[in-house]
Amino acid sequence: MEEFEQELRQAFERRPAPPSLKRKLMDRRADQRGTQRRRGHIQLWQRLAASLILVALVSGAAEWVRHDREERRQGEAARQQVLTALRVTGRALDHMNTQLAAHDRTEQR
Amino acid sequence: MKCRILAFVLGAAALAAPARTQNSPLPLPPPVEKELAARASNVTEVTLGKNMLGFAARFMNGKDKDEAATRQLIEGLDGIYVRDYTFDKDGQYSIEEIDKLRQYFETSEWSPLVHERERKGAESTDVMVKLVNGESHGMFILTVEPRELTIVLILGPIHMDELGKLKGIGGLGALGSVEKGAKNKDK
Fold first, then answer.
1. Angle formed by the axes of helices B178-186 and A19-108, nearest 10°
2. pLDDT band at B164 (very low <50, low <70, confident <90, very high)
3. Parts of chain A with a pLDDT under 70
4. To the nearest whole percent, how much of chain B has pLDDT over 90?
5. Chains A, B: CB pairs < 8 Å
6. If we measure between CA atoms, which residue out of B158, B164, B162, B166 comes closest to residue B177?
7. Paired residues of B127 in beta bridges
8. Hey, is B151 helix, strand or coil?
9. Is the dihedral of CA B26, B28, B32, B33 positive or negative?
10. Measured in whole angstroms, how far is the alpha carbon of residue B6 from the centre of its chain?
11. How distant is the Cα of B21 from the closest Cα of chain A, in angstroms?
12. A99, B152: Cβ pair inside 8 Å?
């Protein structure tokens, strides 16, 4: 029993902390802060990069849609011009046929 | 040194000029056209180069029979130049102006196919084709009516029978009978 009390006393005995402990703790804390700061910076940059990529994707998609719409509009205009040109051509040839038919009728008489 | 650079620039420009001309075979509008357009009550002007025709062809519906045929037709063309002037009253143009128009487009490469004049002289039709190795590589139509003037210039390989298939587009079936009409005229 005495032996046990002796051990207990020794265990509870106040011992001064080693002189390097404070420095080690401070260093560790500084390391942790540095790591946290770095991690914070990395996260910030990651978020910023992700935001930039998202903005680029959204604006790229919007630009693509705008370009596609503009191209369709121009294509439709070009298509209409072709059809107009062919209609005018058809009308001119119809006129020519009418003239030729009238010419033939006159000659037959 | 400066002279060499200048010579090089001039040489490059001289080489580039014919290339640019080849890329755009469509003629510039004759000066008389401006005057006619100013007097007309309704003007239709269409100028489409090879690139524009190719671009328009992409937007032709392949399922529609007429549009598919049109697409096939225009993809091979070098250009389309159309002018249609409608006037409010008779006598808004002179015979000299018509002759100027005809002469502007008429070159040695073109062979007359139809040359029709009404006796009174108010109406006329000219159809010319550009023949290359016996195949038509262009068509020029000039129709003159008392209140309407139409110029059509189509450049590139044209197959009349294919054109005749385009019945649904503004009476383009008439195009198929151009040769027939010309034969009748020859008789």
1. 30
2. low
3. none
4. 19
5. 117
6. B164
7. B114, B141
8. strand
9. positive
10. 39
11. 22
12. no
